[in-house]
Amino acid sequence: MVVFSVFVAWKWGDWRNWQKYLPTIQYFIGCDMMYNLFTKNYSLWEYPHPPNILPNHLIINLFIMFVLYPSVMLVYLYHYPERKSVIKRILYMLMWIGIWSVCELGMITFKNCVYHHGWTYAWSIGFLCVMNPMLRLHHNRPLLAYILSVPIIMFLLIWFHVPVFK
To answer: What pLDDT score does 166 carry?
Structure first.
């Protein structure tokens, strides 16, 4: 999946203007790092070895953060239909939610990703429905994205009883 995303980014990503997307790439990576920090001893999902090729969840997750996320952002943000109708923008986001969903379905089917503590595929789909607009929002209005991220993170921590203070 990561190799495919790098190919897609190489072919259709905006490599010439990568600096334009860097703050949102950093936001994406930072949010994932916060998830890993908050859930260090209480993972909602993990990437086990085997069947994954890389040796453990941490290495796999770092690889995803620093290879997959930047690759995807160079395509997702570059091709976003900025000046198109609201319907086209919604359809674009739905297409990306579908792409992420299919990838995750493949990962859980082949046990490359395993859920814990009440997290399910349905929660992943819901999360993707929030994540994609948040990434786009961050690209245009980063401060608002940071402000809105706080209650989203708080909700998830509380809902899944993540023992942050233990």
So the answer is: 77
For residue 7, give both structure tokens: 């190919």
Angstrom CA distances, 76 to 4, 11, 134, stand at: 15, 13, 12
Please give the structure tokens belonging to residue 77.
């943000």
Residue 22: predicted pLDDT: 97
- Per-residue pLDDT, 100: 96
Question: What is the rounded CA–CA span in Å between residue 138 and residue 23?
Answer: 8
Are 66 and 6 a contacting pair, CB within 8 Å? Answer: no
Percentage of the chain beyond pLDDT 70 is 100
Q: DSSP string spanning 88-129?
A: HHHHHHHHHHHHHHHHHHHHHHTTSSEE-TT--HHHHHHHHH
pTM of the predicted structure, to 2 decimals: 0.93
Average pLDDT over residues 33-47: 94
22 and 133 in contact (C-beta within 8 Å)? no
Residue type, 164: V
The whole-angstrom separation of Cα 98 and Cα 38 is 27
- Measured N-to-C along each axis, helices 121-140 and 18-38 cross at an angle, to the nearest 10 degrees, of 140
